[in-house]
Amino acid sequence: MVQKVIKVFTTAWKGLSLTIRHLFAGNGKREIVTVSDSNYFKQLEHGTNTIQYPKQQLPVPEVGRYQLDVEMDDCIVCDLCAKVCPVNCIDIESIKATEAIGQTSDGTTKRLYAAKFDIDMAKCMYCGLCTIVCPTECITMTNQYDKTVFQLSDLVYQFSDMTPEDAAEKRALFDKQQAEKQAAKLAAMKQKEGGA
Q1: How far apart, in whole angstroms, are the C-alpha atoms of residue 62 and residue 142?
Q2: What are the residues whose beta carbons fall under 8 Å from the beta carbon of 117, sequence distance 6 or more?
Q3: Residue range 171-195, pLDDT digits in tens
Q4: pTM for the complete prediction?
Q5: Which UniProt keywords are listed (predicted)?
């Protein structure tokens, strides 16, 4: 009976001493070191329980996948990123151009306008698939991870700078060109039938 009482007190003392040790050791501040530092994961052993955010921030790994960014000058509006996205957070609307509208930095010819290129980061699961399939590497993941907003709609980022009026004008130009091609095709068919 005496041994059981002694065991109860020693067990309670071990738990209490552990709690007290963490209570006073948890006041240590985390030193900012890079992930490649050999001491990075051993910081937890030094009594640091948390960081004082936003005054202190954890270092961001170079290979970290965070906020998506699109370089629209290099985008050919191929829609591959939207098709591969498992959560449908990328919304793209393209308009065919009547002629080549320029080139990307790697020399790819651009033939589509981006009337809409929106990414909803509230839906994004940061898988990085969109960056892998992009043929011109215009969509990338940056090291920006702190995007705190008050409204959920503020997490929808619009990368296209085309106004609705410009989009309507480009659509009208393309429709006019297609109508002219169709009329020329019909005229050629009539002429061929008349000459035969």
Answers
A1: 9
A2: 70, 72, 75, 77, 90, 91, 92, 93, 158, 159, 160
A3: 888 888 888 888 888 888 888 887 6
A4: 0.67
A5: 4Fe-4S, Iron, Iron-sulfur, Metal-binding, Repeat
